[in-house]
TrEMBL record:
Keyword annotations from UniProtKB, A to Z: Glycoprotein, Membrane, Secreted, Transmembrane, Transmembrane helix
A family per Pfam: fn3
Gene Ontology terms: cellular component: extracellular region; plasma membrane
Keyword Transit peptide: no
Main location group: membrane
Protein name according to UniProt: Fibronectin type III domain containing 4b
CDD domains tied to this protein: FN3
Subcellular location, record wording: Membrane; Secreted
Native source species: Cyprinus carpio carpio
Chain segments annotated as transmembrane: 133-151
Length: 203
């Protein structure tokens, strides 16, 4: 076994604690010994009766907390945490025992540990994801409204253009006039020849 590689591994996490207990979830937090280079963590989770075991591993993160989901109500669990370094994983931390709450205790648990800093960043990220979804939905709805408004305006302009063409076709031609007949026709009836007489009186 390469002893140099073992020495390069980080030390095990310390101060392991479990908070925000719920019937189906819990939050695990820990501390990293000073001076250790850590790029992730690993958590071993199992029910105390041995019927279920889960292993969680995350890298490229400096988080020192993790939410455990899909837990069983009123059940005992055992967890251990490891730090992930550049050259491998640390030894496992000491075992931590905890029990999930009953559903009847859910309201009481929501009143406890509200200001626990261990999951402040995790809860904030969940709220941010919800906010981003709302922003995207709002933008999509605005674009849809703009498209609908544009289509309505286009239909109105198209209808007005069609109506104007129809009016031009049905309008009587004012430039046409009744033909004049110079010899005994209509013009002759309108304009009769007038005769003039001049009387000269000599004194």
């Amino acid at each position: 076994m390469n002893h140099a590689a073992i020495e390069d591994r980080p030390a095990a996490p310390v101060n392991i604690s479990v908070t925000h207990l719920r019937p189906d979830s819990a939050t695990v937090s820990w501390n990293i010994p000073e001076g250790e280079t850590v790029i992730g963590f690993a958590i071993s989770q199992q029910r105390q009766d041995g019927l279920m075991q889960r292993f969680i591993r995350e890298v490229n993160t400096t988080s020192q907390a993790c939410i455990l989901w899909d837990l069983d109500e009123n059940m005992d669990y055992i967890i251990q945490v490891q730090s992930v370094g550049l050259y491998g994983e640390s030894l496992a931390s000491k075992k931590i025992h905890f029990r999930t709450l009953k559903k009847s205790e859910r309201f009481q648990s929501s009143m406890m540990d509200q200001d626990d800093p261990a999951v402040e960043g995790l809860d904030t990220s969940r709220h941010l994801q919800t906010g981003e979804i709302l922003i995207i939905m709002t933008v999509l709805l605005m674009w849809a409204a703009v498209i609908v408004l544009f289509c309505k305006q286009y239909d109105i302009i198209k209808d007005n253009d069609s109506n104007s063409h129809s009016k031009e076709k049905s309008k009587p031609l004012s430039g046409q006039s009744t033909p004049d007949y110079h010899h005994g026709g209509l013009l002759g009836s309108k304009f009769q020849r007038t005769s003039s007489s001049i009387s000269i009186i000599k004194v």
